[in-house]
């Protein structure tokens, strides 16, 4: 769904201000030292002490029995879907959700299930919306197997689902005899925005996936947390998907630093995103309500520029700013650890210059 901004040039921090995603962060010197010094073993045999430590710490932070280290958020989500469903079922999810739009239809490939999508204001699923989509056993249609929620919600603009709304949804879905999986790729962003610990924010979900390699700044890795028996079964599916990484403690070492040190830094990213939204809203052709920006993602309607998001991202690249399209008329800017306020200010100036406009101070 992303509009490509590829060219012959290779992006680097000196050449571009990279606001395509929070996945572009580089490991810190502390992470690199920890990776170099990491004690390792064979993780497929559960013998990598650094991975074991990371998994135990993640389970503790989320108030869960166990955790599973996986290479990517997509793998974590797809393992969860496989764990909770059987072939021929449906997964209820918001129509802009990552599991539906950005995971290569893997729920169909790997789990034999199909999405049942619905649109929700700001991407926030409520029981009132979900209950109309649940399907019981029938000879005419597929049965619902799982409800999947995303918090924060990437393509809805980094919006967050409040604790009470998520808890209410989970309670009703469980009463209906169904599980809930939380795609919490950026759940620490949601936690900071809501001033709620992740254990409280996610506690009602049956499984939670969260990423280390987005706002938390690790180079690789995500974790899936849940009950011990469920996570143990998930190890089988991780291996089936090619996720047996052997001496991957060198990755887990960076993940431990990300998990312990970097949640406290996310508020800076949120402040920079709010600044970007306020400043970009003053540029002719950009439409964004800064009050809607809750975390580190800014999605602008750029239809009034007369360009598609692909055309505009290509133009901005020539002026030194990298941003991705998330639809023909929408351009996304994502703040992260490797972009500070000064660079955000410069990015706004570059966007305005590219469009022949003079930015108004935010």
Description:
The chain has 362 residues and is an alpha/beta fold. It folds into two domains: 17-26 and 264-354, Alpha-Beta Complex (Aspartate Aminotransferase, domain 1); 29-261, Type I PLP-dependent aspartate aminotransferase-like (Major domain) (Aspartate Aminotransferase, domain 2, 3-Layer(aba) Sandwich). 38% of the residues lie in helices and 14% in strands. The protein is built from 14 helices and twelve strands. It has helices at 29-37, 49-61, 73-84, 98-101, 106-111, 127-130, 163-175, 187-194, 198-202, 228-240, 249-261, 266-280, 309-318, 341-354; strands spanning 17-18, 66-70, 90-94, 114-118, 144-150, 180-183, 207-211, 222-226, 297-301, 321-322, 324-325, 330-334. The chain has a seven-stranded mixed β-sheet with strand order 2-8-7-6-5-3-4, with helices on both faces. Strand 5, helix 7 (163-175) and strand 6 form a beta-alpha-beta unit. Helix 3 crosses helix 10 and helix 12 runs parallel beside helix 14. The longest helix is centred in the last third of the chain and has 15 residues, at 266-280. The two termini are 30 Å apart. The model is unreliable at 1-8 (pLDDT under 50).
């Amino acid at each position: 769904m992303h509009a490509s901004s590829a060219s012959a040039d290779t992006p680097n921090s000196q050449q571009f201000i990279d606001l395509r995603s929070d996945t572009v962060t580089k490991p810190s010197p502390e992470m690199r030292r920890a990776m170099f010094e990491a004690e390792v073993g064979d993780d497929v045999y559960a013998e990598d002490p650094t991975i074991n430590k990371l998994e135990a710490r993640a389970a503790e932070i989320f108030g869960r029995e166990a955790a599973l280290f996986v290479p990517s958020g997509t793998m974590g989500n797809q393992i969860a879907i496989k764990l909770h469903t059987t072939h021929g079922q449906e997964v209820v999810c918001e129509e802009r959700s990552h599991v539906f739009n950005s995971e290569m239809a893997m729920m169909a490939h790997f789990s034999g299930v199909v999405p049942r999508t619905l649109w929700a204001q700001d991407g926030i699923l409520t029981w009132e919306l979900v209950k109309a989509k649940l399907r019981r056993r029938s000879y005419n249609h597929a049965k619902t197997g799982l409800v999947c929620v995303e918090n924060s919600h990437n393509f809805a603009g980094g919006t967050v689902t409040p604790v009470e709304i998520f808890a209410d949804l989970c309670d009703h879905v469980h009463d209906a005899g169904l599980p809930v999986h939380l795609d919490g790729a950026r759940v620490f962003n949601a936690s900071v925005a809501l001033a709620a610990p992740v254990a409280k924010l996610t506690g009602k979900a049956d499984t939670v996936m969260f990423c280390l390699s987005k706002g938390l700044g690790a180079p690789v890795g995500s974790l899936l947390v849940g009950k011990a028996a469920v996570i143990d079964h998930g190890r089988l599916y991780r291996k089936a998907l090619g996720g047996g990484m052997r001496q991957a403690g060198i990755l887990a070492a960076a993940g431990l630093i990300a998990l312990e040190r970097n949640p406290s830094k996310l508020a800076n990213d949120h402040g920079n995103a709010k600044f970007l939204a306020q400043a970009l809203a003053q540029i002719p052709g950009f439409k964004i309500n800064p009050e809607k920006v809750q975390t580190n993602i800014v999605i602008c309607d750029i239809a009034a520029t007369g360009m598609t998001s692909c055309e505009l991202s290509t133009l901005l690249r020539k002026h030194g700013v990298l941003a991705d399209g998330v639809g023909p008329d929408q351009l996304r800017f994502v703040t992260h650890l490797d972009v500070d306020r000064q660079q955000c200010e410069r990015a706004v100036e570059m966007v305005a210059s590219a469009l022949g406009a003079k930015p108004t101070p935010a």
